[in-house]
Every structure is written in structure tokens, then in C-alpha cells.
Design brief:
Blueprint (H helix, E strand, L loop, with lengths): L7 E6 L11 E8 L2 H12 L6 E4 L5 E3 L4 E8 L6 E3 L5 E4 L4 H10 L15 H7 L2 E2 L2 E2 L4 E7 L5 E4 L13 H4 L2 E7 L6 H18 L8 E4 L16 H7 L6 E2 L2 E3 L6 E4 L5 H19 L8 E3 L14
Parallel strand pairs: 2-5, 3-5, 4-17
Antiparallel strand pairs: 1-2, 6-7, 7-12, 8-9, 10-11, 10-12, 13-16, 14-15, 15-16
Bound molecules: flavin-adenine dinucleotide (FAD).
Flavin-adenine dinucleotide (FAD) binds next to strand 3, helix 3, strand 8, helix 4 and strand 12.
Length: 315
Amino acid sequence: MPPPPRQRVPEAALAPWTTFRIGGGCRELVHCASPREVTEAVRACAASPDVPWELIGWASNLLVADAGFPGTILRYVQDDLPLEILEDGRIRVEAGAGLDALAAWTAETGREGLICCTGIPGTVGGAIAGNAGAFGEQIATPLFRVELLDRQGRARWTAPEELGFRYRDSGLKRSGDIVLRAEFALPPGDRGALLARREEILALRRSKHPDLAAEPTIGSFFKNLEPTSAAGPRQAAGWFLDQAGARGMREGRARVFERHANIIVADAGATAADVLALSRRMAAAVQACFGIELEREIRFLGRCEGLPGEPEGFH
Ligand SMILES: Cc1cc2nc3c(=O)[nH]c(=O)nc-3n(C[C@H](O)[C@H](O)[C@H](O)COP(=O)(O)OP(=O)(O)OC[C@H]3O[C@@H](n4cnc5c(N)ncnc54)[C@H](O)[C@@H]3O)c2cc1C
């Protein structure tokens, strides 16, 4: 049953709201189901500067520390797909909407540009913040503009050029600005071909990724490598991890997924400390074999043991 609009829950568990299903709780969890509710919640947070706060979407890319987060978490997730087609054909969507629901709609209506997002868990806003994508394509490419909310609660529309998109990264990760709405320019495409491509991608994902309901994960733990790095033409972090013997590694109740060496699965009873220890072993194995330093793709929420001096929020 979806929570009622802008429900505030004191001393809430966070694990049930993450795809990893592990980690501690927060002092207050605020469910926001529209741009207006997010705006009101951010303004309320800004009025209490002593209480730390962060925003999450589906938390499909987040490892929550075992100690949890010592403040307020705003969760911006919409169960429907609030979308408008503007006069010039652009699509405007609210950023709490599901990314895969949007990708499915574009295929159904014969629009190119977002098919690469098929099957990626998470919200449209979370995908923009991390420039999510697959098969060499990413969400930033067809993005026309976004409506941002700063941490004081002031909204403005911004062009993508100002968001510093790079591979799996954007300036939003550092500014903390929130995407309220996004507009995409999606050229017309062949509906039949798009629907067929969608089925192909979903089948590929089913064969390579864990079933989230049975094997909780947050997707690829490390970023692929830039072609210019010491890795040369090889780019998939999973390939290096495989060669370095990561498949089969386990720490506590966390293990490397047997079909994809860049994915960590949290078995029942796993802790964030298990995941962190395992990820360190994986990275050390690649460093020892290839002299390559893997960079994390996922983000931490809260203070994780062994990351001293970092802020309480995302790092
Ligand atoms: C099985 C599986 C497969 C995956 N496959 C892929 C893949 O193929 N490609 C890929 O790129 N990723 C993949 N991921 C990772 C994840 O799905 C994406 O990173 C996703 O875009 C995260 O969205 P989210 O809503 O869950 O964000 P969260 O995990 O909740 O948050 C991630 C970051 O985004 C920020 N954020 C969230 N919402 C907003 C907003 N509205 N405005 C501004 N910032 C916001 C948060 O503050 C945080 O810093 C996969 C994950 C899983 C579990």
C-alpha cells in the first residue's frame, strides 16, 4: 500500500525503502509524492539548519550505513507517471516517477532516446543525478532542461550544459540540488522496433542481473573504466573483477553475484560493514592484478566505518 502523501515517519527504518534492504534508520523519513511536497519538505528542512537532511529516490544506488543517518531523509518517489506532452512535442515528467515506466511509455508511443533506460531501477531524478544509462547511452543525451530546487527551496529551470554530466556523474551529486521535473526532446521512432528492443533488453537484464525480490543488490558497485585510463581498450569493471578472482568472494553475509562479478548481493542478515569489507577486497584484487584503481559507482548514505572525516550525508 503506497504511503499517504507527504507522510512523516519519526525514527524510521530505511532498509525497506532501499533495493539492498540493509543499513540503519533515520531520525525522520518524509515521503514526498509531488514536486510541491518536495518543495515544502525542503523548505521545512532549510528552516532547521541544525538537522542534517538528504533526498533519496528508490535508493537503488545507495548503501545505507549500519548506524543509519542522523537526520531527515526526504524520499521523492511517485507511483504513477505524471507526464505532459508540450506543444512542441517535448515530454515533461515529474522526477519522482519510475525510470523504467518512462522508458516503457516512450517505446509504447514510438519515441527514441530513452530505450537505454529500460529495466534500470530508480526514479527519473535519481537517474539524472547519476547520469544513468546502459549500452554506451545515457539519460543526459535527450535531456532538454530540468527544474531544480536548491537546498534552500528555490526552484529554477536549467539547461543540461550547466549540470556537468559525465559518465555516471553530474554536478548534482555535489551541489545537492534536487530535480523536480525534467523535459526530454525525443525524436519519433519505429514503435515496433522500440518494443522489440525493450523486450531484448529486459531479457538480457534478467540473464545478467539478480532478481531484486530474491537477491537484494544496488547494481554495479564500481564504475567501468574510461577508455583513456590505464585499462586501455578494456572497460568493463566486471571483466577486471572476474579476472582478479572476485567471483565467489564473500564477507559475512555479502557475496559477489555468481553471474556478474561487479554486483554484490546482500543475503539475509548482511550488514553495510560486510558489503564495505567485500568491496574493499574486490578493489584490492583488481589493484593487485592490474594496478588499476576501481572507482565506486554506488553512494554511501551516513557514516560508514573506515571512511573517517567524511560528512554524514552522501560520500
Ligand atoms: C539490479 C540493478 C541494476 C542496475 N542497472 C543500472 C544500469 O544499467 N545503469 C545505471 O546507470 N544504473 C543502474 N543501476 C543503479 C541505479 O538503478 C541507478 O543509479 C538509478 O538511476 C538510481 O536512481 P534512484 O532513484 O534509486 O536514486 P537513489 O539511489 O535513491 O539516489 C542516488 C543519488 O541520486 C540522488 N537523487 C535521487 N533522486 C534525486 C532527485 N530527484 N534529484 C536530485 N538527486 C536525486 C540522491 O540524492 C543520491 O545522491 C542498477 C541498480 C540495480 C539495483
